[in-house]
């Protein structure tokens, strides 16, 4: 439970059994907010297994899913304080600390998963990780949860006007907030672990998320109108507390890097496969109304979103944006 986990978190994280002739075991707490059976939850487990294997048990990664250790609003601070060693927040949740990361929240920035992969494995990926380093964070990888879809309680969201007057749950992100305002909606930031509860209390009419989050948390039970828009990308920055990373022996760092590369490759496949499979599951349900946005309808959304690009460029210049679009 939460209280027990909190207490665990206060115990020494690296303990030394050398007197007994044993090597030090290093314990890494990895906290995240989504369900275990999601692309992030499963990749975290995979990473933990790989690290344990590759280090012959010298390093143990303990994964805390569902925000059981820290919720959205808390996890980044907890990482910076060193109360937890690893987290993997969505890009949107990094934007408060590193405003340039807002670029990743721009709707229709990426064409498809291949486009995303190209960007993150290239120069832009390295640049984004360097921005984290400046804040005392060791960026280890980018994980994927695919593209976000729109959903609502009351009506299908197809034309921009359909959003008018509705309240939308958002992650804390300036770009996403403006995105819904441009559509005439009213955005409200809600921490992921509170979304279900607030749905039960009818606190908002719509939201955006990936199929695997919608499916694993049962959001579709409250908001059955789902528009497959693929308008925004939900990716994660997998990160470690920098001083903790620096304190690790070089050979351990090497093993962690290898395990992360492997877990990341696995995550990219898993994310694609899982979102596709669960979309089919939703499609089969009679209480869910799926609508696939046509290219023409997408263009209408894009026109609405154009000011977001202008504003981003005014604030941060066009360097990063051009690199992403040109790569
Ligand atoms: C959300 O808040 O909707 C997502 O960022 C949750 C997640 O980590 O996938």
Instruction: Please summarize the sheet with the most strands.
Output: 10 strands, mixed
Distance between the termini: 45 Å
Uncertain spans: 1-16
Q: Which outline best applies?
A: globular
Strand content: 15-25%
Which whole number gives the mean pLDDT? 93
How many alpha or pi helices? 12
Structural class: alpha/beta
Taking all Cα atoms into account, the compactness measure Rg is 20 Å
Assign a percent range to the helix content. Answer: 40-55%
Bound molecules: (2S)-2-hydroxybutanedioic acid
How many individual β-strands?
A: 10
Order of SSEs:
HEEHEHEHHEEHEHEHEHHEHH
Structure description:
With 327 residues, the protein is of the alpha/beta class. Strands 1, 2, 3, 4, 5, 6, 7, 8, 9 and 10 form a ten-stranded mixed β-sheet that branches. Helix 2 links the parallel strand 2 and strand 3. The N terminus is likely disordered. The structure holds (2S)-2-hydroxybutanedioic acid (LMR). It comes from Geobacillus thermoleovorans CCB_US3_UF5. InterPro entries: DctP_fam (IPR018389), TRAP_DctP (IPR004682), TRAP_DctP_sf (IPR038404). Belongs to the bacterial solute-binding protein 7 family. This is C4-dicarboxylate binding protein.
What key attributes describe this structure?
globular; 10 strands; binds (2S)-2-hydroxybutanedioic acid; 327 residues; alpha/beta; ten-stranded mixed sheet; disordered N terminus; TRAP_DctP_sf; 12 helices
């Amino acid at each position: 439970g939460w209280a027990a986990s909190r207490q665990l978190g206060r115990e020494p994280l690296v303990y030394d059994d050398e007197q007994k002739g044993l090597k030090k075991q290093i314990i890494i707490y990895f906290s995240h907010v989504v369900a275990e059976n999601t692309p992030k939850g499963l990749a975290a487990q995979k990473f933990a297994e790989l690290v344990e294997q590759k280090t012959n048990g010298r390093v143990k990664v303990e994964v805390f899913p569902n925000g059981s250790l820290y919720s959205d609003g808390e996890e980044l601070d907890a990482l910076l304080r060193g109360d937890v060693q690893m987290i993997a927040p969505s890009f949107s949740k990094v934007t408060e600390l590193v405003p340039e990361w807002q670029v990743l929240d721009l709707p229709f920035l990426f064409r498809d998963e291949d486009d995303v992969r190209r960007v993150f494995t290239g120069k832009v990926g390295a640049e984004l990780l360097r921005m984290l380093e400046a804040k005392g964070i060791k960026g280890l990888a980018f994980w994927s949860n695919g593209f976000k879809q729109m959903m609502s309680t009351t009506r299908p969201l197809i034309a921009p006007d359909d959003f008018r007057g509705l309240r939308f749950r958002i992650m804390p992100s300036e770009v996403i907030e403006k995105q819904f305002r441009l559509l005439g909606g009213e955005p409200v930031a809600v921490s992921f672990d509170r979304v279900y509860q607030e749905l039960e209390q009818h606190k908002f009419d719509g939201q955006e998320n990936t199929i695997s989050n919608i499916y694993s948390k049962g959001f579709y039970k409250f908001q059955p109108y789902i528009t497959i828009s693929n308008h925004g990308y939900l990716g994660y920055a997998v990160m470690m507390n920098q001083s903790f990373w620096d304190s690790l022996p070089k050979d351990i760092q090497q093993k962690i890097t290898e395990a992360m590369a492997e877990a990341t490759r696995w995550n990219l496949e898993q994310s694609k496969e899982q979102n596709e499979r669960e979309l089919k599951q939703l499609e089969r349900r009679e209480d869910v109304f799926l609508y696939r946005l046509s290219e023409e309808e997408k263009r209408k959304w894009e026109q609405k979103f154009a000011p977001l690009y202008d504003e981003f460029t005014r604030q941060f210049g066009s360097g990063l944006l051009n690199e992403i679009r040109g790569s």
